[in-house]
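Re: weekly structure request thread

Next one in the queue (248 aa):
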Amino acid sequence: MASTYSTDLSLELVATGEKAGLWGTITNTNLQILQTASSGYTTLTLSSGNTTLSLADGSASANGKNFYIKLVGTLLGNCTVTMPASTTGGTANRVFIIEDATSRTTSNYTVSVLTTGQATATPVPVGSTLLLVSDGATPLTSIGMMNKGYHSISDANSPYVAIAGDQLIVDTRTNPVTVTLPASANVGDEIVIIDGYNFFASNNCVVGNNGLNILGAASALTLSTNRQAITLVYVNATQGWTYKTNTA
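Done, posted below.
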């Protein structure tokens, strides 16, 4: 009987009596794969479009088997990173970390991650580090955000469509800036907006509601106080987004 492969990491499973003289090589490769899965680190360069990670059979260099994946590169379009839903051995269950170190300061391009076949991707805020779980039978989910990076935006980005977890330093020195909230939200989602240059009174920052309530009203919120810094948290459909903090 020929070798088969395990689920998740596609370790080579040698049948009894097979692969004479190759057990050492196969075992060492399997150990390298286990090491990669427990502490492996790799970089993944993004530009635009979808990039599917690899869980190739018996491969210690397949990038999807790494525990820590750092995203780099200058974005030229929206990017999606896809974890395969299965391997030769069956459903692939993966727990892994994604760090965003891409360059998208002057663009509104997005980065997201999903499992093959999933309709809605999980957004990756600029500069953030996410702990993720991928189960081929269910959508990929974020276990938690280990680091929330800050993202500087100006009139060059306006209107900027925010995603949950964004921490935005807003530059209104030249013109007003519009930050549009997500079209959908989950209870507990948060977005931070900060006057980075003490200019909100001169050039306002307008927070667009995008169909959801802000402070219980279906209308935009205008930030017009210098040095204002707010954290909006989504609480329910009635109140929508409300202040967690509001300082100036």
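DSSP finds one helix and 22 strands in the chain. The first strand starts at residue 4 and ends at 5.
Next request, please.
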